[in-house]
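Final report, closing paragraph on structural work. Over the funding period we assembled a curated collection of sequence-structure pairs, and we close with a single example.
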Amino acid sequence: MSSAVVNGLAGAGGGIIAQIITYPLQTVNTRQQTERSAKKKKAGSGGSDASTLFQMLQLVQTEGWGGLYSGLKPSLIGTAASQGIYYYFYQLLKNKVEDVAAARGKKGLGDGTVGMFSWLVIAAVAGSINVLLTIPIWVLVTRMQTHTQAERKVIESKRELLLKEISRANSMDAHILKDRLAKLDSEKPRPYGTLQAIREVYRESGISGFWKGLIPTLIMVCNPSIQFMIYETLSKRLKSKRSGKRFPKKNITAMEYFPLNRYS
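Its predicted structure, as stored:
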């Protein structure tokens, strides 16, 4: 099995584990972003933003534990695909660039190692390929995360209108409206699956809807590209120091990889 495939599988597996652990926070964060304009209006009238922990507890209370993991299945698929594709192409390009650098070094052109700019280009290309192939999955994940919230807002709007009508209606009409209000209060958001999300995106925007936000997402590729450029440079220096101090192994351990990723 090639090193590129191994890195792709490792990246996919690690991404899945991390996604399961952090998904509730991602769900709350996504909902906070979609409610930003509403929160600003509340702040103007004396309201205050709820903490992340409070919102998580509130979400569990209103939607159950499943609410924290709304859209988890496509998200896991997206994470596995995204991390797998990224690390596969990153390692594939890395192997080729290192082979070219080594060949040039044998000819006396350079020191046989890859420079910082080359790492930046490798990471950027791998990130761009990843975005182009996986952004449709993340469009669906975001829609599934926010769907239940959107339905609850619609139900709440209907409830407010009914309450206003009840306050203005006579006793006969008020009784009928109260029955409608009780029926509305018993309603729960409908189940929302992946196929339904796909149909809605296509109906609203066609095929291009699955690549909504592509340009800003490609621009954001700069962040991991810079991170991997710094990471590879620090990794190279650490390996060089280990070799110079006559360590028995030149490979970097998992515990050494952790601070490298942190500082990059």
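The mean pLDDT is 76. The domain at 3-220 is CATH 1.50.40.10 (Mitochondrial carrier fold). We thank the funder for supporting this effort.
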